[in-house]
Amino acid sequence: MDLALQLLFTGIGIGAVYALVALGFVLIFRATNVVNFAQGEFSMVAAYLMVVAVEAGLPYWAAFIVALLGMALLGVVFNLGVYYPLRHRTYLPVIIATIGASILLANSVLAIYGPQPQVLEGWFETPGIQVGPVYLDSQYLLIIGVTICLVIFNFWFFEKTLLGKKLQATSQDKEMASLLGISVSTMIMITFIYSAVLGGLAGILVAPVLFVSIQMGSTIALKAFAATIIGGFGDVTGAIIGGLALGVIETFGAAYISVPYKDGFAFLVLIAFLIFRPQGIFGERVAEKA
Amino acid sequence: MRLTRRDFAAGIAAGIAAPYLIKSANAQGATIKIGMCAPVTGPAAESGGYAIKGAKLALEAVNKAGGILGKQGELIVEDDQTTNPGIVLAFSKLASQPDIVGFLGSIRSTQVHAMAPDVIKLGKPVMIGGTDPNLTHMGNQWLFRFRPNDSYSGRVIAEYGVSTLGKKKWAVLHSTDAFGTAGGKALTGALEKLGAPSVLDQGYANQSQDFTPVVLAIKQSGADILGSYFTFENDLGIFARQLRQLGVNIPWVGSPSIVNITALKLAGPALYNTYGVADYAEDSSEGSKAFGKIYRDAVKVAPDNQSSWTFDAINVLSAAINKAGSTDPAKIREAILATKKFAGAEGEYNFDQNGDGLHGYNIVKNEKGNIVFDKHIEFND
């Protein structure tokens, strides 16, 4: 039982990271109908921005704000440079452009900062606390807390605010939204900014656990992508549940079946979903788009 | 001007022959070229940078001392991207240059396995740092190893843990790639011979983001000592931190990556008081000390095995070419195999007929981040 509790906590912690990145995937997919394969690189870039800001002598909180502002700017540049010029094309060129952008981002950071993995200290001086038989890593606690806050925030933002409803309207039917006076391009711009910030937040939060490296983004993004499909592509709740489920499944699978096949469990579940329930747990609201 | 059939035929012949003549002329160029596959990008890019620096430092010294066959040595580096397909591509790019006389391959066994078939096809000497014992025992006469292989490291880890530290309940943790699998097998085999079979033999996949299940398995096994073979330093760093966080403080004797500069930086205090088998230990010999000084002065970073093996590889290869008096691959091969009592950064090289240059390991201890040399264990077999 102690073992299971420890695994559950770790699984939820790592799953929350997948969920944060998956959320970025979903938001952009809903707004543009394309998958942004550079979402993982957003996490990596933010982690490096954080390292640079901390090394420059900024207090941790200020470095955090600087990094997130940097990500907002990256979201603007990404939208204008990658999505906007191709917005009238089919989804394929846009997807290829996002793959190209992810390679560009990774190699740019490599060229500027070098290949050295970096250590980013966590928010708390205490690495964790022991609660009975379970060790609670403070960074994972923070990640879980932030994920819960974001779930609440997203619900409030998308369901209770005018801007959120405009974003939803844009994602559901761009032409109708436009006819209703909503600036579609502005909404898409806001979506890219929000997704970049979300991806960046995930990167900054997970950096003290996984270290800051060029590869960190792609590693997380692959799992987050799987989480998005499992949860239901295009569904915010699905992304969160999918991410958490994936984290828990792979952690328990590694502990009780096989450690070397840990990644295999995640993708086995993904394949099973693609075969038996391709719309994911919550399913895509196809009717809304029809 | 009238073009005769003879003129036309001569023109065609000249056109066909020209590229070969130009290539041949290049092959007899002003420098002696040595190719190097190194991870410039990918997870091992940092250690790859150290490897390139080690090779360049050696070549600078060789050139200052008169060069190779009276010419300046030149290093041509191709990025292996820290992947198997990457090193195959990098090696094929280098192999297509006929004026490259010898090569430096990878420190990662799995990459050396990937490039090995092409090495046989090319038939030129390739210096390697991969420590899977099979690499020099699978009939590939062109691979020459500049680090002691894992049949030695497994025996040294087992011997040190059982005899010196007095521990008999072993948990063995290893990567599931070629290096880790071979290392884990060597260690469990050595433990069985010492009458202390492992209570846990656990593999893990490279680039894991979480080692909680592994740490809990170690905890549950009741092991009183841990032996490890980690391929990548970031994996080692994450594992070390989680091991300590989850309250496992048993002695830990690891393969050389446990004392790598990158691992020490990432894991920090989580690696304090661990032991490592190290092919490079700065205080282990005069050659090691000399390299340490050159490297620190030039790179401003503490040296480790990532740079020491490439430093030695360039020195031995250059000396072998000079001794052979030729760039003929077979003659270079004979000269490398004839290398005995060569004092390198990693220790004394005595090549056997398999192409293994080193036959022992150092034991070192991490004392608050400082790597302290304990002893060297040499084997005669």
TrEMBL record, chain A:
It comes from the Bacteria. It is found in: Cell membrane. GO terms for cellular component: plasma membrane. It is a multi-pass membrane protein. It holds the Pfam family BPD_transp_2. One of its GO terms (biological process) is amino acid transport. Signal peptide: none annotated. Keywords: Amino-acid transport, Cell membrane, Membrane, Transmembrane, Transmembrane helix, Transport. One of its GO terms (molecular function) is transmembrane transporter activity. The chain crosses the membrane at residues 6-27, 34-54, 60-84, 91-113, 140-158, 179-198, 238-259, 265-282. InterPro entries: ABC_transp_permease (IPR001851), BCAA_transport_permease (IPR052157). Belongs to the binding-protein-dependent transport system permease family. LivHM subfamily. This is Branched-chain amino acid ABC transporter permease.
From TrEMBL, chain B:
It comes from the Bacteria. InterPro entries: BCAA_transport, Leu-bd, Leu_Ile_Val-bd, Peripla_BP_I. Keywords: Amino-acid transport, Signal, Transport. The keyword Ubl conjugation does not apply. Belongs to the leucine-binding protein family. PANTHER family: LEUCINE-SPECIFIC-BINDING PROTEIN, PERIPLASMIC BINDING PROTEIN OF ABC TRANSPORTER FOR NATURAL AMINO ACIDS. This is ABC transporter substrate-binding protein.
